[in-house]
Design goal:
alpha+beta; Aminopeptidase; eight-stranded mixed sheet; 4 helices; 29% strand
């Protein structure tokens, strides 16, 4: 399922594409920014590349800017759990930060999650990453706890 926002497109990443991203096997039409993927995306991408079964909605997504350049990623850590909660993470290359794209991406992805049965969202970020904390707050989540260097956010997904 592709998710569109005013300035971005979230394209689902297949296991085969995840493998190519990890291997940096860029092909015509991929349009990956030289800084993509971010280092912390490699673990989830490797896991996804090795999977044989993936959810069409609650998966990993490539984030493209308005020009079609891959500038980051968004990923659900699986479908909603038995309570309806879905955990997610995201990241944009430095050149794409500071203009509201991350908030736009998170809001759109959480709306899609809500439309497909999720009722609560959970994410965490580094204590020092105040920009990410602002994104999560703007997306309607609230800080629920701090543990060491991590801040955890959660929120109900409402229409």
């Amino acid at each position: 399922m592709t998710i569109h926002t005013a300035r971005t497109t979230l394209e689902p990443i297949s296991p085969a594409l995840a493998r190519r991203i990890v291997e940096r096997d860029e092909r015509e039409g991929d349009a990956w920014h030289p800084e993509y993927p971010l280092a912390d995306e490699l673990g989830p991408l490797r896991g996804h590349a090795a999977s044989t079964d993936h959810d069409p909605v609650f998966t990993l997504y490539l984030v493209r800017d308005a020009a079609g350049l891959a500038v980051g990623g968004f990923g659900f850590f699986g479908p909603p759990d038995s309570t309806g909660a879905v955990e997610f993470g995201y990241g944009l290359i430095p050149a794409a930060r500071g203009v509201g794209l991350a908030t736009e991406v998170v809001v759109a992805a959480l709306a899609a999650a809500r439309a497909h049965g999720a009722s609560r969202a959970i994410a965490d970020t580094d204590v020092a990453n105040t920009a990410s904390q602002r994104v999560l707050l703007k997306a309607g989540l609230a800080e629920v706890r701090r543990s060491g260097s991590t801040v955890c956010f959660a929120g109900e997904l409402r229409p």
